[in-house]
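pinned: reference chain
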Amino acid sequence: MTGSWRRGRDWLAFQCPRPDDSAVVRFAARLCRVVSRLIRFATFVAFPTTVHWRRHHVMAISKILRARLLTLAVMVACVVMVLSGCATSTAATGGAIKTDKGVTGKTINLGILTPLTGPVADPIGKPLTSGIEVFFKGINDAGGIDGYKINLIEKDTQYSPQLQVQAYNEIHDQVLMIAESLGTPTTFAIKDLAGADQMLVSAATLSSALAREKYLILIGTPYRLQVENAFDYIVNKLGIAAPKTGIIYQDDEYGQDGLTGYKESITAYHLNDVAQVSFAATAKDYSAQVLQLKRAGAKYVFMTTTPTATATIIGTAHALGYDPQWILQSPAYSPLLLATPVAPLLQHEAWLVTQGAAWGDTSKPGMADLIRDQTKYAPAQKPDGFFEFGYTEAKLTYTILKKAIDNKDLTRAGMVKAFESLKTVDLGGLLPTVTYGGTGATGNDRVPSRDNTIYAIDATQPLTIKDLSGDFTGTAAAASQF
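pinned: its structure tokens
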């Protein structure tokens, strides 16, 4: 019996190691003893010969059956444990942290889905991802999150919804959450998959529609409200009544959010709308759209674009003799554009709608941390708003992870519970404090912030932008319903 006991015990330890194995083995032994007694009784009844024969054979039969039975009992006990959560590293004794997918020992795997090649990579994808990497390098070198180290599993999506889905499917069983999903159309492509997996996704997008999704985490003011704040600045702060306006937008979910904000602004601020023109995300030539805006006579043109398209559109317009006041959605600008021929045009006729701490303003504790980590881990990194966004996004992810660990529940369900319990998060001044509505929140309660700042493009400033308005929330953005 000893050999069978040892084989059963070792099989259990191999299949399902855990701190309380001894309790399971004791349970299996008790089960074995009970059934053994039943077997002995049944054998005496079944063989009505001499007492000596019965005792000799019953003991032999019992010994064999008990050995086989114990091995079976231990296996059954392990199966029960697996079904009740043994594979999640949940211990019955105090102090253990529940885990499921994405946690191995003291390592937490997080997914990164971002464009590392293609036209969006250099201006947005690479610096934003670098911000996340730098933040967690600092955390890991300081001992991790209560001893847990962070491992980032990165996939290049090229800003393609199809590649985003492919990348998600490759890693979704390996990670606890997606710590970056960059892009509006790409994040839309995986939101239902993440919902089916009940996995949090930190989205590097400010889509209003995605703010309503239970498993999506946004950080910052949605695109739709950025547009409304821009026109509040023109009408209420600059005092321009019924301005002649237009919008040029990428024809996908990102562009549609900007268009929604523009249409709400027409009503809220009595804009004189003269043109609404769209372009495909893969477009290279924008001459037709620019001519439409020029012929309509739009004086203020909002751009829901990405940096490469921004530069081409503004350059094309100037070549065609059209130089309105351009107003850029937050993803429409990158400091890299100041190395292009349109740099003078940007500095004279473009505003940017965004938010965040000024680079190097170490009076903000979050910025002091950013500068320290950037200097140590990415010394070649120049001031960049997308790097700052990624670092801030990682700070929020850290906050969720820390809460889940404090709750002793690093399962995906535990992460959702931790996120929903945060409600208000201080980001150290990198962004204004963000708010989330708590458990079961929907609509308005899931909008993290509604404020913005209007900036001029200014190459003399650290982030190449200069504050024109101060941080504010316009009347339309404050009242907008989600």
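why pinned: The first strand starts at residue 98 and ends at 99. The CA atoms of residues 37 and 405 lie 46 Å apart.
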